[in-house]
Every structure is written in structure tokens, then in C-alpha cells.
Design brief:
The complex is a heterodimer. Chain A is α/β, with parallel strands linked by helices. Helix content of chain A is about 40%, strand content about 25%. In chain A, strands 5-6-7-3-8-9 form a six-stranded mixed β-sheet, sandwiched between helices. In chain A, a hairpin with a 2-residue loop joins β8 and β9. The two termini of chain A are about 35 Å apart. Chain B has one domain: MetI-like (MetI-like fold, Orthogonal Bundle), CATH 1.10.3720.10. In chain B, α1 crosses α10 and α4 crosses α5. In chain B, about 40% of the residues are buried. The chains are: A alpha/beta, B mainly alpha. The structure holds adenosine-5'-diphosphate (ADP) and magnesium ion. The site of adenosine-5'-diphosphate has 12 residues of chain A, from β2 and α2.
Amino acid sequence: MVESNRLTNLAHHRGAQTRPPAVRLHDIQLRRGGQPILRGLSAELGQADVSAIMGPNGAGKTQLLRLLAGLAQPDGGTVHFAWPDAPEKHRIALVFQRPVLLRRSTLGNLSHALRQYGVPRRRRLSRAMELLAFGDLTDRARTPARALSGGEQQRLALVRAMAAAPDLLLLDEPTSNLDPRSTAAIEALILRATAQGVRVILVTHDAGQARRLADDILFLHDGQVAEHSPAARFFDMPASAQAAAYLQGDLYL
Amino acid sequence: MQDFTTAFFAAFDLVLTLDPDLMQIVGLSLLVSGAAVALSCLIGFPLGAALGAGRFPGRLPLLVLVNAAMGLPPVVVGLTLYLLLSRAGPLGPLGLLYTPAAMILAQAVLVTPIVAALTAQIVADLSEEYRDLFATMGMSRTAQAATLMWDGRFALTTAVLAGAGRALAEVGAVIIVGGNIDHVTRVMTTAIALETSRGALELALGLGLILLALSLGINAALMGMRATARRLADG
Ligand SMILES: Nc1ncnc2c1ncn2[C@@H]1O[C@H](COP(=O)(O)OP(=O)(O)O)[C@@H](O)[C@H]1O
Ligand SMILES: [Mg+2]
């Protein structure tokens, strides 16, 4: 972790506050089955390398990521990305909480993705090999993806998202089911992605992880922003009662 | 009983010596049913994929229809085709009645709904699972269909095998449109029916043994494919 902390600091240094945020959300409304899920949510995310979204179960974190990925349309409000053609041009990649892997080998999953993203056939294999190496999955190339361990599956889902050469990577609780070793591997991968210039929005319940990786924390409660603070301040002095209770492990829903 | 035992051994003899008459009948059976299954896949795969993952008006009624057609009675299919193909019928000029082509057509009518309905089910299940992934990848409908068919390949093989089982075993449709003409349109099932009624039990039994072995083989392959499909799904 010493290594990744050094990387983190490096990354934060690079993630200067001068560039525009990856996405500006203004007064977002989202309904599902007649119920309001996101209620007037406004925020600017992804100015630095890693923004974390936290909040209790059911707060609307997953729905917010889906909205950012273009899988859902808001019922009100506006979403503005730093890139004019996002999210259409694969600039935004989403990794689901439970990886959706094709019934193919590890390599097969990557080749398939590269093909969808328009990488010409002759460059697919070399690019896939790079991605395998990137995800430390080279010796798993021929393994059926669904036979991989949980950590390997999550790494594959992450590098497959990287196949899109995205500007913004959305990760939904990527380590919630993983042991500490696999978690460390995913965190290292996230930092490697940011080192390549990818900005990351990370949903996590892991305060340590958010501290290690994120610059800023958006805390959601009941479909609204309870707090949006720099990470250091969020963990030392949460400004909202909800975040304070959440961090103390007080259960509320 | 004496009769039966003698017939049984005679039947074995026919099978083991590869009796030319018997082999011709088996060969025609495989040809007709094989062609029928191939034709059914040609129609049933795209139809099933569209029904399973497509969005178009009339999809649900069509799905119900295709599912219902899985249980079409072969004699009714045979009769209908007979009316269409007979000299006075609308397709009479084609001169297909009492040819293997008519038999292929008849079995394809029986098998296509099986292939299409099972394909639709397989593709629908996969599509449900992959929908969000496809959406994040911005895949076209055709790219989605291709991915679904490839990822369902082992499950789809079970659809083909189920269709082959139905084609090889049915007798009602091919006997009506084929006419059971010796050396021309006589297949295993129609030969068994005829030879049994004539009391020529050894040929009937010999064919029965082969048919049974084929059916067992198909079902064993089916189970193997299902297991493979499951393994690929579960890891
Ligand atoms: N399709 C849906 N229909 C109705 N309610 C939904 C649907 N999807 C999610 N919800 C509700 O939206 C709320 C936010 O869900 P989600 O974004 O998954 O929360 P989380 O912060 O745990 O990721 C929850 O109360 C959930 O029950
Ligand atoms: Mg969630």
C-alpha cells in the first residue's frame, strides 16, 4: 500500500483543479415505478482523478451511475459532460457491481469489446494482450471468464471497460465482494487507469478505500446530496449529520 | 415367442451385415431429417432470435403461436402439405408429392417451431442478462444478436438436437407426403410401420434398433450439451 499511496499523491498532484469537472449535474430528478429516486441532485464530479460517491444502501448511488453512463434518462434536470459527444462515443465506461461477463474466455471477452469499440481486427490481439497485462490476467487469457475468481472477474470487467479507451470510468462498488488482497489489486488498477489520464467516479462503502483513492466525496442520502467535501475533511469533520452517522456506523435507511 | 426371438436375431444379423436395403432406408432417413433440420435452423434461428430479443409489434402473439406449433400433430401437417402439393393443389405444378423433397418440407414444418421456440427462450434469457452490458457498449441490434447467438451456442445445440429427435421419430407426415415408396421415399419409421403390418418383423426390428440407438445418442448428446452450457454459464 506504500506504493499505491505514493501513486495516489502523485495522481492528486497531477489532478490539478484547473480542468473542468468531468460532469456537471444540475437539479437531476429520476423516478422509478412512480417513486422519486434522485431528488433535485446537483453536483460537479470528476475534477480530480477520483471522485467517490458514498451513502447508505438505497441512497441512489447505482441509479446515479446508470444515469451518468446513459443507461437511464433523467426525468428532470441536466447532465453536462466535459466532452461534447459523451456519453455516445464510448467516452464513459461503467463497471457493474456484479460483473456481466460473456460466456467466453478472458481473452474472448476483451476481443469482443475491442471489436464493438471499432478496433480493427489486426490490432485487436495486441491490444487485448496489453489489456490482459494491464489487469494482471495474462496467465488467465484462455480461462472461461465465468470460471475466474471473484477478484479476477472484477479485474476483467475493469480492463474490458478500459478497452473503450474511456475518459471517464464509473465503478459501482468494485470491491464490495472481494478479500483484502483482491481489493488492493483493484485499487492498484484504478490508480494505473488514472495514471493514463482516465478520470474515475467510484461508488464505495469502504471508507479506507475512499480515503486512499478519492479527492472528493459526494455523500448521497435518500436521493439527495447530503454533502460534497474534499476527502480529508469529509472523514475528519463530516459536515452533515447523515454522513457523520454513516461514518460512525450508525445504521439508518 | 419363438417368432420374436428368431426375428430379433435376424434383425441383428441385418444390422451387423449392413444389409443394403436396410442401409438405404437409414441413409434416406438421415438425409431427409438432416436436410429438414438444416432448413429449420435456417428459419428457426433468426426467427427465434427476433422473438427472443427483438422489439416489434406482434412479437408476443407470434411467440405464443410458435410455442403452440411445437406440438403440431404430424398427420395434420402431412395432410395439409398433401393438399397443397397434390396435383390439384396450389403447389401441385412443382411435382413434389411423393418425393424426398416433400418429406423434407413436412419435417421442416414440424421442426422449425421447435428450433425457433427454444432459440427464443435461450436468447431471451441471455439478452436479459446482457442488456445493460450491451447498452454500455453501444452495440447495434445485429451485433447484439450475433453475440447472443454465439454465447448461446451450446444451449442452441440442444434446440437442434431436440428438432432432430422429432424429425427422425415422426411417421405421420412423411408417410402421407412421401407415400412410403420402396427405394424412393421409404424411411425408417414408415418402413417399420409397413414391415410390421406385413409381418416382416426382422427388418422392422432391425430398423427399430437403429432408430432407438440414434435416439439414445441424440439424447446423450443433448444432456452433454446442456451440461456444457451450464458449465459455461456458471464457471
Ligand atoms: N427499477 C426500479 N424500480 C423501483 N425502484 C427502484 C428501481 N431501481 C432502484 N430502485 C430504488 O431506487 C433506490 C436507489 O437504488 P440504488 O441506486 O440501487 O441505491 P444504492 O445507493 O444502494 O446503489 C432504492 O430505494 C431502490 O429500491
Ligand atoms: Mg448500488
